[in-house]
Amino acid sequence: MKNRATVLCVRDGAILLVARERARWALPGGRIKRAEPPEAAACRELEEETGLIVSRMSYYFQFRGFSTIHHVFVADLPADAVPEPLNEIARCRWFAPSKVTSLSASVPTRGIVELFVLHVTTLEKAAGSDVIDEAIC
């Protein structure tokens, strides 16, 4: 199994997705290099793909894909952060989580977003919607 650092960037209820030229939408991220901590890989990949520099990432969960283990992190983005497609990435765009199911998106991206939405919905029911922004942003 390959190991991948995958990043959830959430702002105003939308999730950042990236895509290469003529490829499916995906969450930012990439391969974890040998002896590289997963959080460092997540920060590196996010910066390489979008130019976004974050001071903090929070480990969210592990997601098993077909041949890849995704170490999923939530990025703590600065309020003025603007993603730009860099290197192999041709497009960066914010999507409402409900739109991801109708996009041409990777299977792991759909699964991770679905689990994220389920978790947020559970938090909302348990604690009220005011707690959600604090919990994920």
Automatic annotation (TrEMBL):
A Pfam family it matches: NUDIX
Cofactors named for this entry: Mg(2+)
Domain Nudix hydrolase: residue ranges: 1-118
PROSITE patterns named in the record: NUDIX, NUDIX_BOX
Entry keyword Hydrolase: yes
Presence of the UniProt keyword Transmembrane helix in the record: no
One GO molecular-function entry: hydrolase activity
Xref: InterPro entries: Nudix_hydrolase, NUDIX_hydrolase-like_dom_sf, NUDIX_hydrolase_CS, NUDIX_hydrolase_dom
Domain of life: Bacteria
Keywords from the named record: Hydrolase
Family according to the record: Belongs to the Nudix hydrolase family.
Protein name: NUDIX hydrolase
Organism: Paraburkholderia terrae
Phylogenetic placement of the source organism: Bacteria, Pseudomonadati, Pseudomonadota, Betaproteobacteria, Burkholderiales
